[in-house]
Design a protein that fits this description.
Blueprint: H1 2-25, E1 32-43, E2 49-61, E3 72-74, E4 82-84, H2 99-109, E5 119-124, E6 127-128, E7 137-143, E8 149-157, E9 163-169, E10 183-188, E11 202-207, E12 222-227, E13 233-241, E14 247-249, H3 252-261, H4 269-282, E15 312-313, H5 321-340, E16 344-350, E17 358-360, E18 366-372, H6 376-382, H7 387-394, E19 402-404, H8 407-414, H9 418-425, H10 429-452, H11 476-498
Parallel strand pairs: 3-4, 16-18
Antiparallel strand pairs: 1-2, 1-13, 1-14, 2-5, 4-6, 5-7, 7-8, 8-9, 9-15, 10-11, 11-12, 12-13, 16-17, 18-19
Pfam family, one: DUF1365
Keywords: Membrane, Transmembrane, Transmembrane helix
Transmembrane segments: 476-501
Length: 517
């Protein structure tokens, strides 16, 4: 009897303890809110179109903590019903930091003091039940140490994983008297968001701050108006709170209500974007613009009146697998070439200034600088038939993946005559076979590229293959990568052609010779 009673008491104690742990782990989150929104989009030219859909956004105060409840937290790996992963925000080179630390470093790069973002609120689409989705727009509201609003920041993402930001300072030039919005700013369209539009024109960005003078929450309203380069209205997008009492503190009750009434609202965002793009393409007859290289990432003034270099991309996205290994092979090839030309130094830089340069060689009379504007340069160089193709097609005349400081020096550094290459690099019949297979693959790629643009005017040798240094010249790994890159490109072209996808004139991605200047 005593034993049974003891076991019963122990069971009750365990149940109470478990309930306590659950309640503690799912505790309310301070300074964090869920807000239901309706987003509406309307296009005016070259064809009319409109649509709208619901969203649920989280508005929360940024801090350096990740030990929030399992309802909602900022964390890379710790699970919660709703979560914000800091790796998905702001400058990619600072993604090992918390969002607030990344924000301060990002603003410091642009000349702002740390006090500009002494505190900040972020409004964004959280990950739901561990399932992530594209996050097209996030808004930061920054405050100084006296709780004065300093900046409103628009962070924009595209479906390619690239990021950009637009900064609206709180000053006389941006404050407006409106019942809906508190600030606005005209800024050039410097970031590729949609295949339906190019990067020309400018935005009128409008926003309201989330707290009034009495520190009462007022769900922000956002409006983006897009004008083309001739100042003709092209597009509007609105983000407006929907329903009564739409801002709810993040608690067990509010999260359960969200998951039970709008469980797939945010998860459908990418599908909705894709559907609208396909509808405009196939039913409204709008041709696609291909994604351009990300280009200059910092030091782009949003308008002539700015005193700081504010706008621009937030850095390259993570380096793709094939690009990483192609880069390693090319760097080894350049090391080998520099050893032959002992008085030449090569410096590889990136338009993302936070990526460290790579220096090859030292004590040189001549310096060659390669400024990389896209990681894709490395994969395309791997299947390029010769140096002239690299300079003219991958360089600024055409695809603009790289800016080469001295074409003649680059040509002299990489060029080998066929006989010396084979005698130096092919120490076995196997190596000779790999070198020939690589040459054949590059020759086939050049022939395919020429076939895509039969009317292109060409003033250099496209189809002639040349020998390269190891490992670019005779490496099994390079051969495997070259095959994968070539197959990937041809499969991409085949599928898009099969689906009847149309691009703007001279903009088809797999027809680079159409863009030669």
């Amino acid at each position: 009897m005593t034993s049974t009673t003891g076991q019963g008491l122990l069971g009750v104690a365990v149940a109470v303890a478990a309930t306590y742990v659950i309640i503690q782990n799912y505790q309310d989150v301070e300074d964090a809110y869920l807000i239901n929104y309706a987003t509406s989009h309307r296009r005016f030219t070259p064809t009319s179109h409109s649509f709208s859909y619901p969203l649920t956004l989280a508005l929360f105060k940024l801090d350096n903590r990740s030990e929030r409840s399992r309802l909602f937290r900022e964390s890379r790996r710790m699970w919660s019903l709703l979560r914000v992963d800091p790796r998905g925000y702001l400058t990619t080179s600072y993604n090992d930091l918390s969002i607030i630390a990344n924000l301060r470093r990002t603003l410091d790069d642009r000349g702002y003091s740390e006090n500009t973002a002494h505190s900040a609120y972020l409004m964004t689409m959280p990950t739901t039940l561990g399932m992530s989705n594209i996050n097209p727009l996030s808004i930061y509201f920054c405050y100084d140490d006296k709780r004065r609003h300093t900046l409103t920041i628009f962070e924009v993402h595209n479906t390619y994983g690239e990021r950009s930001m637009y900064i609206i300072p709180n000053d006389d030039s941006t404050r407006i008297s409106s019942s809906e919005y508190t600030h606005q700013s005209f800024q050039p369209r410097s970031f590729f968001v949609s295949p339906m539009n190019d990067r020309q024109g400018f935005y009128n960005l409008q926003a309201s701050v989330p707290f009034n003078s009495q520190n009462q929450l007022r769900p922000p309203k956002i409006r983006v108006t897009y004008y083309d380069q001739d100042e003709k209205l092209k597009f509007t997008a609105n983000l407006v709170p929907s329903g009564e009492a739409n801002a709810r503190k993040i608690s067990l009750k509010s999260v359960v209500i969200h998951l039970s009434t709008r469980p797939f609202t945010n998860l459908l965002t990418f599908a909705r974007i894709l559907y609208q793009a396909l509808y405009l393409h196939y039913f409204k007859n709008l041709a696609f613009y291909p994604k351009p290289n990300i280009g200059v990432t910092l030091n782009t003034k949003a308008n002539p009146t700015q005193s700081l270099d504010e706008s621009g991309s937030l850095g390259f996205d993570a380096e793709p697998f094939l690009c990483f290994h192609a880069r390693k092979a090319i760097e080894k090839t350049l090391h080998s070439a520099v050893r032959r030309h002992s008085r030449v130094k090569v410096i590889i830089t990136y338009t993302d200034p936070l990526i460290s340069p790579t220096e090859i060689g030292e004590g040189a009379d001549d310096t060659l600088t390669l400024n990389i504007r896209s990681y894709e340069f490395f994969t395309q160089m791997l299947i390029s038939p010769n140096v002239d193709y690299i300079i003219n097609v991958l360089g600024s005349r055409c695809e603009d993946m790289v800016r080469i400081s001295d074409d003649d020096l680059f040509r002299r550094l990489l060029s080998l005559d066929e006989n010396s290459s084979l005698s130096n690099n092919s120490t076995s019949s196997q190596a000779f076979t790999v070198a020939n297979w690589l040459a054949g693959l590059r020759r086939a790629h050049a022939k395919w590229i020429l076939h895509q643009s039969p009317d292109a005017t060409i003033d250099f040798d496209v189809s002639g293959t040349q020998a390269f240094e190891k490992p670019l010249g005779d490496s099994w790994m390079v051969l495997i990568m070259a095959i994968a890159i070539s197959v990937q490109l041809r499969l991409f072209a085949f599928l898009f052609t099969l689906l009847g996808v149309r691009f703007k004139p001279r903009q088809t991605p797999w027809k680079p010779l159409d863009r030669l200047q």
